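User: quick one, sequence for these tokens?
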């Protein structure tokens, strides 16, 4: 028996395959006949239990399941529909088709006529993590950030101590950076910037008061020893663990590679063709990797094919399989494609949902013929598109939950508009990489409170008798400065945008004294913990502080206490004026090039 009326592919079958890939919205008709020889027997066959479930689901519709086991014959156009490629497409993206699930989804669309996209809440705030939040500098950083209404998380080991010191409502991450298993990724969700004030504990050998009065006077006033975990464990192993915990959240200066050539490697993705064959067309494309066809003879991917408008077609595309885990790109501002243009307009489609028939966040981009170029697509430029139409009521794009990517060359744009560069025939788009990027100007995402003197213990020709106690006693203090320097090196090598602040001897004096910023690890003196906290916060917002390492002290000598008149406080400093004078690449290690620091 033949159905009395034709079904548009835009209704059942193509609803879940065609329209969601932003192809043509035109209708292409097919009919179903009783001849089942063109489909393999296992295709869409149901067992007894599935039939019972099916009957319950579709008892209210006059369309029978057996219709979908019939041969599909094209009514228009001069070329036949390649059902083999159609089935191959299904298998590639979905694995062996589940008859019940597939057919049920078709009938759901027939009866409901819509697909709802789950709402993903966009993160609207950037959380600042303060590690070592109960220490002298850390707790001041927390207080200042909260006074400014900024979202803060405090990383602490002792919850009771932290709540007593910082307040009962403080948002805590209770963990120990020396124990990697305590740094659970879920705890760091939403963290975009870090101020690290963690430090190995140094205290008087003879003991101290509960308020650490001797320690607060400064190490020059007592005989020091390491209390608790060793410098190696805190300053080096702990730093490595902390960087690994926050790296994905704060982002990398050079971006995150999703596909292609970069960082002396080539990262591939499982691309599959998704052409207008799914709606009866004859266009065909594929995606290959050419190991020598890229820039400077390097590897590149190539999206290539032959596009035709026969049978009301007109698009080709390649799409990745769904990622096994969603890519969290919330630390970044967009995607940059490195490609060799051909003068045509293409689309990039990004999906944030595991389902097949779902909104695709889409951006069109033009290319220049014969030129390698970088095409930047800000996340803010992605349009929510569903079934070739923009969806003004779609949820906002969520860069924390990217599931798949798709490249398309199509006759069609959105909402009935056409691609002005479209032409039938062969096309080829070499694509060497897709990378997430951070918008310029970049600012530090990881600010570390280190220590002046870290390069001095083994510096040739240095008179140690004129150096601070930590430099003279580096070996006795389990190589405290050596491991602090090793921890700094981990930051510099991590790829995270950073700033390293090296204060001289820390004091409990108020902020406000005139300051000296220096580089090369040569100065001695003192500086207020209040001042250092303010410097760290300011560094997070200054492009001039990016990837800089510097020392800081006040102009007030040790012999003179610094006080502030509460009725006439000093003006707020513009720390950016200090940052402007800092230079790249100066760490003080330059003096060690002829000397090896031994541990």
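Assistant:
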């Amino acid at each position: 028996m033949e159905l009395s009326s034709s079904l548009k592919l835009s209704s059942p079958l193509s609803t879940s395959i065609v329209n969601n890939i932003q192809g043509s919205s035109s209708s292409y008709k097919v009919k179903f006949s009783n001849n089942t020889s063109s489909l393999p027997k296992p295709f869409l066959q149901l067992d007894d239990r599935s039939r019972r479930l099916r009957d319950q689901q579709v008892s209210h519709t006059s369309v029978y399941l057996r219709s979908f086991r019939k041969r599909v014959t094209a009514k228009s156009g001069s070329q036949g529909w390649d059902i083999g490629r159609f089935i191959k497409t299904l298998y590639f993206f979905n694995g062996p088709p589940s008859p019940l699930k597939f057919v049920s989804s078709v009938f759901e669309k027939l009866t409901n006529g819509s697909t709802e996209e789950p709402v993903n809440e966009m993160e609207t705030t950037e959380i600042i993590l303060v590690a070592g939040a109960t220490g002298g500098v850390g707790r001041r950083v927390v207080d200042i950030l909260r006074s400014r209404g900024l979202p803060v998380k405090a990383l602490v080991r002792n919850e009771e101590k932290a709540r007593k010191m910082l307040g009962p409502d403080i948002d805590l991450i209770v963990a120990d950076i020396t124990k990697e298993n305590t740094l659970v990724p879920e705890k760091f969700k939403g963290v975009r910037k870090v101020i690290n004030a963690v430090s190995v504990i140094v205290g008087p050998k003879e003991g101290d008061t509960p308020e650490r009065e001797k320690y607060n006077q400064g190490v020059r006033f007592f005989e020091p020893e390491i209390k608790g975990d060793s410098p190696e464990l805190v300053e080096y192993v702990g730093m490595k663990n902390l960087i690994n915990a926050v790296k994905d959240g704060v982002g990398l200066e050079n971006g995150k590679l999703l596909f292609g050539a970069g960082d002396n490697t080539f990262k591939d993705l499982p691309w599959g063709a998704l052409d207008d064959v799914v709606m009866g067309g004859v266009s065909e494309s594929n995606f290959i990797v050419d190991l020598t066809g890229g820039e400077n003879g390097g590897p590149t991917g190539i999206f290539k094919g032959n596009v035709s408008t026969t049978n009301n077609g007109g698009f080709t595309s390649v799409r990745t399989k769904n990622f096994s885990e969603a890519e969290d790109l919330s630390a970044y501002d967009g995607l940059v494609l490195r490609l060799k243009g051909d003068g045509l307009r293409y689309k990039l489609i990004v999906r944030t949902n595991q389902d097949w028939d779902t909104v695709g966040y889409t951006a069109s981009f033009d290319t220049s013929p014969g030129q390698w170029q970088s095409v930047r697509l800000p996340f803010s430029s992605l349009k929510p598109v569903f079934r070739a139409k923009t969806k003004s009521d779609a949820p906002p794009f969520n860069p924390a939950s990217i599931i798949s990517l798709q490249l398309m060359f199509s006759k069609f744009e959105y909402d009935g508009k056409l691609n002005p560069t479209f032409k039938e025939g062969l096309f080829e788009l070499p694509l060497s990489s897709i990378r997430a990027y951070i918008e310029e100007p970049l600012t530090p995402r990881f600010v570390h409170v280190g220590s002046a003197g870290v390069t001095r213990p083994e510096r040739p020709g240095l008179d140690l008798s004129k150096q601070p106690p930590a430099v003279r006693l580096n070996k006795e203090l389990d190589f405290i400065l050596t491991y602090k320097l090793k921890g700094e090196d981990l930051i510099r090598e991590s790829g995270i945008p950073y700033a390293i602040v090296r204060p001289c001897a820390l004091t409990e004096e108020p902020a406000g004294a005139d300051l000296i910023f220096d580089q090369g690890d040569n100065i001695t003196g003192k500086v207020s913990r209040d001042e250092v906290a303010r410097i760290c916060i300011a560094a997070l917002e200054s492009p001039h502080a990016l990837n800089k390492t510097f020392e800081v002290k006040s102009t007030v000598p040790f012999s003179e206490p610094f006080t502030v008149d509460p009725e006439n406080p000093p003006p707020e400093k513009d720390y950016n004026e200090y940052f402007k004078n800092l230079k790249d690449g100066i760490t003080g290690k330059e003096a060690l090039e002829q000397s090896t620091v031994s541990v």
